[in-house]
Amino acid sequence: MATRKATLSVDQEAWEFAETMAARAGLSTSAWISAAIRREAVRQGAGTNWGDVEADALADEEDQATAEAELRAAG
User: Fold this and answer.
1) Of 11, 18, 65, 69, the residue nearest 39 (C-alpha)
2) Which of 8, 16, 46, 59 pairs as cysteine with 41 (C-beta 3.0–4.6 A)?
3) Given a cut of 80, is residue 37 above it in pLDDT?
4) DSSP collapsed to 3 states, the chain
5) pTM beyond 0.85
């Protein structure tokens, strides 16, 4: 698969999450972020014309907030 070099600004906490999860998955941080971007784009309906993408994204943001709160509580 072709790759493209890009410069992104990512908040520190998000970067730390990405590094941790990439290490757990045995991937480079770049590979893990690339896969995460692809999953999120597909989840939100990239390349499709079906579903209420905005409502789904809002519901997923609530799920993400809950997951992040649980991670913080776990230390």
Assistant:
1) 18
2) 46
3) yes
4) CCCCCCCCCCCHHHHHHHHHHHHHHCCCHHHHHHHHHHHHHHHCCCCCCCCCHHHHHHHHHHHHHHHHHHHHHHC
5) no
